[in-house]
């Protein structure tokens, strides 16, 4: 932001290249396991691979990660696994399970802040986040298109990384960008090998859960405008039409409206946080 | 007989209650500032300050080694004269003020004269506590026009921010941070 000497490649390696490669390798493992008939294991492992691949980036960004956790970010790197796993809960309890587990996981991350909140504040935040989390998981459960939904989420994540970076934190922008790299790696892999649709959708849902927690962290610890974050996540509500081709071929032309629609509110969020003064 | 009994008794009382003679001061926030400067890209030094400081100190010109100070800085009160930069410095990349709302200094010892010396103590920044040595110079003391008794000191120390876990952008933003303390206190 102020012209550091670190080369762009050195910055890009932990944020983009490592998680992307990790996602591809882990995606191949999942693909092979699925092919070998380990359906149950793959069902749970699919979103976990997203978290693991992201962790390769996150521990490179938060280099002082320690166990047992001492700082909020130490907790964050661990607790993000909880909502990611909760996306695999049975559908009848998924919404409530995802909401409650996400809140409990984030409560641990936000211990220093929770202690300073009044009861009414705490209650308001709790209700607000449960609502947002419920809507997000419900909307993602409606998705049937394993080509357009990840592309749409990818667009939102990239824009949110820019919003967070411009707002206040490069480290959190990098963590957000890493989620995009992971999902992007998997999406690219799905273009080369035939990843089952439900597997790709499960991974995308895992990435969404991870992304929401990164956004929450950015809001609470870096004061990123909550309205900007909610606005840029609005395209989650758009249910993309099912794939029409039956031979597995994707409709590349559909990518353009997908990206445009997904970026529209993100650009508005960018405008909302655009600094009045130059940061450079 | 009586005199030979009283002299050691009075002497020991005076020694035991040495701190009674040291004056206790409350930091006057209106005349106290903590500034820090840090290298910017090798071109210049950027100066910022903290606006909210509170604390107490004890100072006795006759026994300066008994001097002690406790200062608490509200890390959210950072002011670098650039709102967007302030938000960035307060964020997780640097001070992480939501998680670490206070910066503190608690002295553990003083070496030097009544007007100049080195104040050692525990400095806590970004949740990390380290011992530092602050070079102290006394500026003056006396009664102000309203009858309050005041004293004032300046202190400087250079720390490495990376040692406190504040290690983002070390390429462009210097690692060495020179902290300057300008403190004035009112005797209680």
TrEMBL record, chain A:
<feature type="transmembrane region" description="Helical">
    <location>
        <begin position="12"/>
        <end position="31"/>
    </location>
</feature>
<keyword id="KW-0472">Membrane</keyword>
<feature type="transmembrane region" description="Helical">
    <location>
        <begin position="43"/>
        <end position="61"/>
    </location>
</feature>
<feature type="transmembrane region" description="Helical">
    <location>
        <begin position="172"/>
        <end position="190"/>
    </location>
</feature>
<protein>
    <submittedName>
        <fullName>Uncharacterized protein</fullName>
    </submittedName>
</protein>
<keyword id="KW-1133">Transmembrane helix</keyword>
<keyword id="KW-0812">Transmembrane</keyword>
<feature type="transmembrane region" description="Helical">
    <location>
        <begin position="97"/>
        <end position="114"/>
    </location>
</feature>
<feature type="transmembrane region" description="Helical">
    <location>
        <begin position="147"/>
        <end position="166"/>
    </location>
</feature>
<feature type="transmembrane region" description="Helical">
    <location>
        <begin position="120"/>
        <end position="140"/>
    </location>
</feature>
<feature type="transmembrane region" description="Helical">
    <location>
        <begin position="252"/>
        <end position="274"/>
    </location>
</feature>
UniProtKB/TrEMBL annotation, chain B:
<keyword id="KW-0732">Signal</keyword>
<protein>
    <recommendedName>
        <fullName>Lipid/polyisoprenoid-binding YceI-like domain-containing protein</fullName>
    </recommendedName>
</protein>
<feature type="signal peptide">
    <location>
        <begin position="1"/>
        <end position="22"/>
    </location>
</feature>
<feature type="domain" description="Lipid/polyisoprenoid-binding YceI-like">
    <location>
        <begin position="24"/>
        <end position="186"/>
    </location>
</feature>
<dbReference type="InterPro" id="IPR007372">
    <property type="entry name" value="Lipid/polyisoprenoid-bd_YceI"/>
</dbReference>
<dbReference type="Pfam" id="PF04264">
    <property type="entry name" value="YceI"/>
</dbReference>
<dbReference type="InterPro" id="IPR036761">
    <property type="entry name" value="TTHA0802/YceI-like_sf"/>
</dbReference>
């Amino acid at each position: 932001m102020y012209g550091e000497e670190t080369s762009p490649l050195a910055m890009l390696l932990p944020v983009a290249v490592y998680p992307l490669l990790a996602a591809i390798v882990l995606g191949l493992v999942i693909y092979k396991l699925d092919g070998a008939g380990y359906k149950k294991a793959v069902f749970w492992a699919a979103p976990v691979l997203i978290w693991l691949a992201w962790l390769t980036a996150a521990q490179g960004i938060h280099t002082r990660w320690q166990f047992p956790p001492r700082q909020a970010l130490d907790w964050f790197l661990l607790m993000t696994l909880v909502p990611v796993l909760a996306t695999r809960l049975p559908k009848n309890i998924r919404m409530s399970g995802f909401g409650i587990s996400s809140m409990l996981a984030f409560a641990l991350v936000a211990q220093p802040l929770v202690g300073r909140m009044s009861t009414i504040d705490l209650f308001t935040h709790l209700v607000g986040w449960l609502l947002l989390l419920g809507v997000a998981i419900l909307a993602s459960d409606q998705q049937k298109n394993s080509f357009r939904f990840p592309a749409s989420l990818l667009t939102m994540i990239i824009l949110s990384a820019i919003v967070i970076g411009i707002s206040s934190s490069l480290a959190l922008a990098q963590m957000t960008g890493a989620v995009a790299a992971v999902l992007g790696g998997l999406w690219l892999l799905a273009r080369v090998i035939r990843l089952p649709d439900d597997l790709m959708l499960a991974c995308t849902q895992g990435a969404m859960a991870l992304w929401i927690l990164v956004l929450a962290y950015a809001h609470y610890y870096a004061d990123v405008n909550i309205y900007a974050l909610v606005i840029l996540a609005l395209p989650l509500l758009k249910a993309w039409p099912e794939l029409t081709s039956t031979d597995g071929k994707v409709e590349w032309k559909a990518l353009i409206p997908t990206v445009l629609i997904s970026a529209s509110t993100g650009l508005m969020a960018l405008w909302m946080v655009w600094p009045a003064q130059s940061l450079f | 007989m009586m005199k030979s009994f009283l002299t050691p008794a009075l002497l020991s009382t005076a020694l035991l209650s040495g701190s009674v003679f040291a004056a206790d001061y409350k930091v006057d926030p209106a005349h106290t500032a903590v500034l820090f400067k840090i290298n910017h890209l090798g071109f210049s030094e950027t100066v910022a300050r903290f606006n909210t400081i509170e604390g107490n100190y004890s100072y006795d010109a006759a026994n300066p080694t008994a001097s002690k100070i406790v200062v608490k800085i509200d890390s959210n009160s950072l002011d670098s004269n650039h709102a967007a930069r302030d938000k960035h410095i307060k964020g997780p990349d640097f001070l992480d003020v939501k998680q670490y709302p206070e910066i503190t200094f608690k002295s553990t010892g003083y070496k030097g004269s009544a007007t100049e010396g080195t104040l050692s103590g525990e400095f806590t920044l970004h949740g990390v506590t380290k011992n530092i040595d602050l070079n102290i110079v006394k500026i003056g003391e006396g009664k102000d026009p309203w009858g309050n008794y005041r004293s004032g000191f300046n202190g400087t120390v250079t720390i490495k921010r990376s040692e406190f876990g504040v290690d983002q952008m070390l390429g462009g933003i210097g690692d060495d941070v020179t902290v300057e303390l300008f403190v004035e206190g009112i005797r209680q």
